[in-house]
Amino acid sequence: MSERFFEHRVLSDEAGTRLDKLLAAHDFMPSRSAAARLIDDGFVRVDGEVVNKKHMPAEGALITVEMPLRDHGDLEAEHIPLDIRFEDQHMIVLSKQADLVVHPAHGHWTGTLVHALLAHSQELGTMQGDDRPGIVHRLDKDTTGLMMVAKTDRTQTELSEAIKIRSIDRRYLTLVHGYIAPDTGLIDAPLARDPRDRLRMAVVDHPRSKQAVTTFRVLERFMAGVKDDGFTLIECKLYTGRTHQIRVHMAYIDHPVVGDQLYGARKAKADMGLERQFLHSYRLKLDHPITGEEIAILDPLPEDLATRLESLEEFSMGRTSAGDEVFAELAAAD
């Protein structure tokens, strides 16, 4: 997808204006929300630096913007298979497959989950903008598992608020490199875009960083082999939902996710041939935002990840009590 590239020198009457508002006043920007998303995604720089949407540039500052030619809001339904686990008139819970981008973004203007949702339902929440109908939260392109989708604006608002106040229990299974000795752990490390690479996130001590908290429980440990330093299977629980949070946090403590092509070691043999991260959203528990009923759904590992885990069976050092609990639940749900 080709792009347009814009440059703008801040005028005296624009100085001190929020960056998203300033950009929205120009004809090349379709809306303030579109400007905010471009800023958040690192496509806007002020004097060469990535900043946040609240930044107020000074007179004479040079703003550069990379922007796709295609109109984000011009979406067409596409018949892509969906694995629906729960649906009523208010919301959907589905299991997202690997290699599926959640919503249109740079380099992915077709073939997304959003396009599939448009083919599945005539009603989707609009609170996240024209290019994100129904979207409440995201999973990375190659992360699999459970996701919520809102079919009404009220549901979308309620689910988003529930995530903010941490009343939704979201848990992930991930296999990481190395031996994690403690049975439990907490990682509280702020995240922001890597100043050297806008495609990556990093633990950064900076005013624009956002709090990110991940807890984990060890489920099973595996002895080191000839081509690896061992593995640990863990359950991660999110208390915040930052971009790439689990992947960055695990790399930060020197236990990168197996198969992670962005934050991992990218050694094919040590990654057991996986070319995507071993990360799966396996558990979702919440009170329905409209009816109040409890929704609790488990999603066993997809075949490619389950096969890799089975191949490590002879190297297992035994499951923890948490591992016995989780695998018993998954066996009952399968």
Description:
With 334 residues, this protein is α+β, with helices and mostly antiparallel strands. Helix content is 19%, strand content 29%. It has seven helices and 16 strands. Strands 5, 6, 7, 8, 9, 12, 13, 14, 15 and 16 form a ten-stranded mixed β-sheet that branches. A hairpin with a 2-residue loop joins strand 10 and strand 11 (197-203). The model has no long low-confidence stretch (mean pLDDT 90).
The number of distinct helices, counting runs of at least 4 residues, comes to 7
Biggest sheet architecture: 10 strands, mixed
Q: What is the arithmetic mean of pLDDT? A: 90
SSE-based structural type: alpha+beta
How are helices and strands ordered from N to C?
EHHEEEEEHEHEEEEEEHEEHEH
Distance between the termini: 41 Å
Low-confidence stretches: none
Query: Shape from CA axes?
Result: globular
Oligomer: single chain
How much of the polypeptide forms β-strand, as a percent range?
25-35%
CA radius of gyration is 21 Å
* Total number of beta strands: 16
Helix content: 10-25%
What is this entry, summarized?
The protein is an alpha+beta fold and 334 residues long. The chain has seven helices and 16 strands.
Features:
ten-stranded mixed β-sheet, 16 strands, 334 residues, 19% helix, alpha+beta
Summarize the topology:
Layout: E1 3-9, H1 19-24, H2 32-40, E2 44-46, E3 49-50, E4 62-68, E5 83-87, E6 91-96, H3 113-120, E7 144-150, H4 153-164, E8 169-177, E9 184-188, E10 191-194, E11 197-203, E12 213-222, E13 231-238, H5 245-252, E14 279-287, E15 294-298, H6 303-310, E16 316-319, H7 321-333
Parallel strand pairs: 7-14
Antiparallel strand pairs: 1-4, 2-3, 2-4, 5-6, 6-7, 8-13, 8-14, 9-12, 10-11, 12-13, 12-16, 14-15
